[in-house]
Amino acid sequence: MRKLWGLNQRLSQWRAIRAIKEALRVVYPFILLMTVVDVLGQSILANDGFFFQIYHIGSWLPAIAVWRMAARVISIVINGLVAVTVAFMTANQLARSYRSDALAVGIISALSFLTLNVNYQALGRKTTGMSQFMEENLGPQGIFLAIVVGLGVGWGASHLMTRFSRWRLHHPRFGQPSWTGRVIWPLTVILLMMVAIGYGLSLLTPYGINGLVYQGLSSLVANPGHQGVVIVAVTTISNFLWWIGFVGPVSLAGNSSVTSLQNLSYAIQHGSGWGAPNLVTLHTLGDAYANFGGAGMTLSLVIAIWIGSRQASYRRVANQTFLPNLVNLNQPTLLGLPLLFNPILLVPFLVAPAVNITLAWFALTWKLVPPIVYPVPRTTPGPLIAYLGTGGDWRALALSLVCLTVSVLIYLPFVRLLNQEGGGNHAA
Amino acid sequence: MRHSWWRWLVGILLVLAVFLPSMTWMRHQITQYKTNYKTPLDPTIMVPGSSASQNRFDALIKELRKETKTGHSVLKVKVAENGQLSYTGSIRRGDNQPFIVVAFENNRDGYANIVKQAQWLNIAMKDLVKTYHFNHFSTLGHSNGGLILSLFLERYLSQLKDVKVERLMTIATPYNMESDSTTTQTAILKELIKYRKQLPKSLTVYSVAGTENYSSDGTVPANSVNQGKYVFQNQVAHYTQITVTGDETTHSALPQNKQIVLLIRQYLLQETLPAKDRYQNQAQNQVDSRNATDDPGLPQK
């Protein structure tokens, strides 16, 4: 614990980590608003939303199409562009620490990030109906790339600008450089570099670097088989990727995988999930017992903060993000605390789901609970997933509550450890 | 402390407000799944006509197998007079569209025999459902086989719990036996019409007639086939009559008639036919329907 704390302190000294944390702190309110809209959109207004289903909202809410559209529009604008904002803010904060022109560097970074996500497939075609940008990379799943670009460009552009100013100082015959003069050269150099990188990548893969990583990961996660150990490993890798900012589509296998469908048809024919053909899958273990709040059991993190944290900012974020966590949309928690790039919270973020999967594995193989077989909406509150998915088995509900408690206990010491953290960053 | 007591109460109420409706929702969902669930196994039950054995459809099955990439496996069931079942062939593992031919030891013609054969079919179907766990099927009946199937669907289908029939195709089935009359109804037709309300409302029926000349396929009068409308029309979801003319349209050649094989593939097995076959088939139908309705003034689609 002490070592971990030391590591945390050392990392916090890093300019890059500080820039990232600061950037995420600035972006947080935007993400929070977006998530609240998403909570409304996905769990209450969408056809497959949990609250939509259980309260039969479609049958009594007037003008549901209009509500849906509004939620959708806000979601597209904020959710769809969050990575661009992160790219801007990261470079902006880094440039500030270099005492460079933070605004200019931030804009250059945002443009660079967009350059890397130009859709080369749509380029040069007149009417393809394809988007000019790889839009999905501009949303939450692009956050990691945005951070990398933000750091790289923030560093590069700041140094270029400083160099250039210095050079101008040495050659006073050109006179004082104007704002345009200071910005235009670093902008040109960096954009040219980005075009070169982007074009080079487009020759390798049509989906951009982000798409490439995602495809690889998705195929890895998509079918981890029936080995408990493999499932734990895949979940841990996936959660680690969330921690470094690969947020989004590397989500767990859903209701519709072949194994789940086989289980469903078995349950329908036999009346319950006992004896279903696919007892141990990512779905029956991970989705059911290790995904409360989303990746990393963040619902239990929120509860642990309520119980054990004395940090005002943590408590505030926990209060604000409880509802999104309840319907498994945990992005604001990850970005708001921030949990991303926080070495102390990384430990329980990886351990808690792994422990839960192990618990669930024992419970399933010892036939203490039946596997989940009925599809549940993605926005079902975590502790209810197993209960509803098994068709109302009380043992599954009990196991869910055990998992929740265990996860809270795993998070608690780390949350307490963070109480020592004080001063500037978190007083805000 | 009163403050915190209130908080707990509100918390518990909120949990219940989510929990209780979600339980109702779950129960509703599960019943929905149960009623809408279809087993992957989707057999086609084939019943031959009088004087025909369980090998009656071999030529047809050979044709069907030749055309389709999925090699339908064939299970043949013969029902003895005492209800004893003897199986030949098998349903291949992984084949979800097998053919099951049900034939009868006593395969004689006549009202009394057909009624008995429907009972025997019921025995066979019960055993098949118990063994292979399918909950939906389609059927094909040639000649009197169509009568046996219609009787079975009216009288006995309800005995098979949660099993649905989706499509019924009868080929040259004499709903009014050998009678050519459009007014007098034979015993079997009266029987079928009397209990037609028992036919499942979701059923889709195709009645295919063949005609050598303008009135008969050599054995069964076209008028007798046409009487099927009094059984099915306005009771089942869709009732379609198709008349096929041309080569190979004698009563016994119909099951392996090229046009009828196409009809079986398209309507009964619901295959997606290659464009050329589909075209050929449609062209044929259009000509036929014009002949049948004798209304050349109707614009052809």
Which structural traits does this protein have?
heterodimer; A: 428 residues; mainly alpha; 0% strand; disordered C terminus; B: 301 residues; alpha/beta; Rossmann fold; 8-stranded mixed β-sheet; 9 helices; 8 strands; 17% strand; elongated
Structural overview:
The complex is a heterodimer of chains A (428) and B (301). With 428 residues, chain A is an all-alpha fold. Chain A has helices at residues 2-13, 15-45, 50-54, 57-60, 64-80, 82-97, 102-116, 143-170, 179-204, 208-222, 228-243, 258-270, 282-289, 298-308, 312-326, 331-336, 343-365, 382-389, 394-417, 424-427. In chain A, helix 2 (15-45) packs antiparallel against helix 6 (82-97) and helix 7 crosses helix 8. The longest helix of chain A is centred in the first third of the chain and has 31 residues, at 15-45. The radius of gyration of chain A is 24 Å and the shape is globular. With 301 residues, chain B is α/β, with parallel strands linked by helices. Chain B has a single domain (39-293), classed as Alpha/Beta hydrolase fold, catalytic domain (Rossmann fold), CATH 3.40.50.1820. Chain B has an eight-stranded mixed β-sheet, sandwiched between helices. Chain B starts with a helix and ends in an 8-residue tail after the last helix. The model of chain B is unreliable at 283-301 (pLDDT under 50). At the A-B interface, helix 3 and helix 12 of A face helix 1 of B.
